[in-house]
Amino acid sequence: MLARRPKRAVWWDAGMAMLHQATLTPTKAELIAAWLPGQPWFAGDAGAVRLVGAYRFDDPAGEVGIESHLVEVGGRTFHVPLTYRGAPLDGAEAFLVGTMEHSVLGRRWVYDAMGDPVYRAELLRVIAEADGQVELVVETPEGPVRRDPSMQVRGSGGVVPDGAGIVVVREPLREGASSSGPTLTGTWAGVSEPTVLAYLA
User: Is 36 within 8 Å of 51 (Cβ atoms)?
Assistant: First the structure.
């Protein structure tokens, strides 16, 4: 492990997310499938959830995983931002999606990211600075390996007023949110036109 550190330092920067080769129990798809039916913006059977894309933001403190998923259920596409924590988040019980066992990191508490202040702050920053998702790097026995993203996102830039409200577009291909104000848009396989994923109210 020590022998790889100098190599990593040559190209590592804060705009990357280090991922582990790991087994997750339950899987992300299983966790989302169990949680979706209880959400007021979802209707239908979540028995067959298919992950179609994902993007990550970076927690400046390096403590919270921030990953947003696009999932397909019954021909509809839903946007599910999540955060992963090594301990429960005080006061966020209503936003708890569930827990999972990570074969490298141990137990992780998974939250609907809208209830996590780390996610909200980073989303505002990405939108204001016209930034995008971080690069993905997987830690392997042979050293760090970059992973190609399954989608691309970009903030629009612009002034973010104090106290601005954040709206996550839960069904981006149907809701048709306006892109006239500060937004986060994304593209993924089969969707080449930038589509609004979140905006400031």
Answer: no
Per-residue pLDDT of the chain (201 residues; tens, 9 = 90+): 323 323 333 333 446 555 555 677 899 999 999 999 999 999 878 778 999 999 999 999 989 999 999 999 988 999 999 999 999 999 999 999 999 998 777 789 999 999 999 999 999 999 999 999 988 777 777 777 777 889 999 999 988 888 888 999 999 998 666 667 899 999 999 999 999 999 998
Query: Strand pairing of 106-112 and 96-102?
Result: antiparallel
For the chain, the domains span 2-200
106, with CB counted inside 10 A (0-12, 13-18, 19+), is exposed
Query: Does residue 26 have a cis bond before it (omega within 30 degrees)?
Result: yes
Residue type, 193: E
